[in-house]
Each structure stands twice: as C-alpha cells, then as structure tokens.
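[agent] plan:
  1. take the single chain provided in the ticket
  2. run structure prediction with default settings
  3. attach structure tokens to the ticket
  4. add a short note for the reviewer (M.T.)
[agent] executing step 1
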Amino acid sequence: MFLTALTFLLVDFLRLHINPIKSIFIILFGSLLRKREFSSLTGGSYLMLASLVNMLIFEDKGIFMASIAFLAVGDTMAALVGLTHGRTKIFTLRKTLEGMIACFISCTLIAYILSILPDITLPLKIGLIGATIATFIEIIPLEINDNVLIPLVSAIGMQIFKTILS
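[agent] step 2 finished; step 3 output follows
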C-alpha cells in the first residue's frame, strides 16, 4: 500500500512540475480529470493517501474497508447520479439531493455486505453510522478534498461508536 500511494503521489508531483510529463499525462488521462485537477493532485492520489493513512491508523479491517469503499463507491455514485439525474440542489450549486441519496444507498449497501462477511467484524449499526457520516461529508461544502475527509472522518466515527457500544 505504501509503495502504491508513493507512486501515485510521485507521478502527480512530477506531472505538476515537469511540463513534458504533464503533456503526456494530459494526453493519456486528460479526459478523466476534473478542471481543478489540472493544477492540483488528482482524486486518485487523494484516495491513495487516505487509504494509507487509514490503514496506518485503524487496525480494524472492517472499519478500514468500509471507509475506503464509502469513498470509492458512495462518492462515485453521488457524482454519477447527481450529474445525470440531479435536480434538487442542496448546500451548493454542485451537490444534489439525488446524488446524496445515491451516496447513502451505496454506502448502506456496503455496510450491509461487510456486516455479513465472515472474516469482517463490522456490526451493521456501526457500518450505518459510517455510511451516514460519509454521506454527510460528501454533501457539505468544504475546502478540504472529500477524497481525504470521507474515509478519515467516517472511520473515526465508526471507531468511536464501536468503542462506545462494545
């Protein structure tokens, strides 16, 4: 995991600071980049960084897996549904009620799946708390990239409630 995260960050750093690498990167991946990612780290780098941090902080495999899946699946579904079917704007002009619902349903499904896997010890109610936190973080307008906040804050919330309820 460390080498993967380091590789993502290194490629992103080189892309941002060395023009020939930037040109090749844009040719290969430009259509996948958001406007702000042309001059900052990509969502993939933030995902790798968040994964590494969560893996180092949280020993519980269920909490780690849920928090990363909430980002990978929930945030993606929010964007896809919000952009294609979103009509009801919330908080900002970029977030929609439809995207939020898609995020919450996706995260809830992840929580359920992880709660029934035999090698994972993530009670459904803890996963649902994490799903709710992840959805809330996804919709509120923050300056910090949600690719970092969704996994980190949802994992912290799940860990706190798992400790309290144990």
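[agent] step 4 note for reviewer: The CA atoms of residues 109 and 131 lie 9 Å apart.
[agent] ticket updated
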